[in-house]
Amino acid sequence: MKNLLLGLVVVVVVALGLWFGIREIKKANLETIPEGAVTAEKKNTVEVTKTDITKTGSKLPQGFPSDIPVETVTAGESYKAQYSDIGMTQYTVSYTSKKSKDEIWTIYNDYMNGAGYAVDKVSSSKSLGQISGTKQNDIFSAIVSSYNGISLVQLSYQDRQ
């Protein structure tokens, strides 16, 4: 279990590192704009709300689609990030399961097909444990990794207005 949590922490740290790296590249590109050039800079405003999974009640972030299958009993992290400048809310949920990686991948594949998502065949792979799909402007993805009979499931839902 410690290895799964360590793996989750590593994934989060890498994602944050990529995000900050992209930010720095954009910042560097802005600094190389010739003097006198006209630029419009849009400030990003992000509001992150972490769900307190230790309290009774829902372990899912408020607004997370109720039809997406989640084993909430074993939820380890749950939050929502609102990007008001671009009109998007991202919901992220992580949980563990005793089901195999293939079983969980099949659950999300069946869910996406039944709910009208267009599954992205290029970025989805059962052997890698990842699946992604779009429905209208929204994006849903699931990543599953397994270790010692326990699967770690990471869900991301991007609601674009």
Radius of gyration: 18 Å
- The strand count comes to 7
Percentage of residues in DSSP E strands: 25-35%
Q: Which regions are unreliable across 5 or more consecutive residues at pLDDT < 50?
A: 8-21, 35-40
Supply the CATH architecture of the largest domain: 2-Layer Sandwich
Question: How many domains is the backbone divided into?
Answer: 2
> Could you name the CATH topology of the largest domain?
TATA-Binding Protein
The biggest beta sheet is recorded as: 7 strands, antiparallel
**The top level CATH class name of the largest domain:** Alpha Beta
Ends distance: 37 Å
Structural class label: alpha+beta
Mean pLDDT: 80
Task: Please summarize what this structure is.
By secondary structure, the protein is an alpha+beta fold. It is 28% helix and 33% strand.
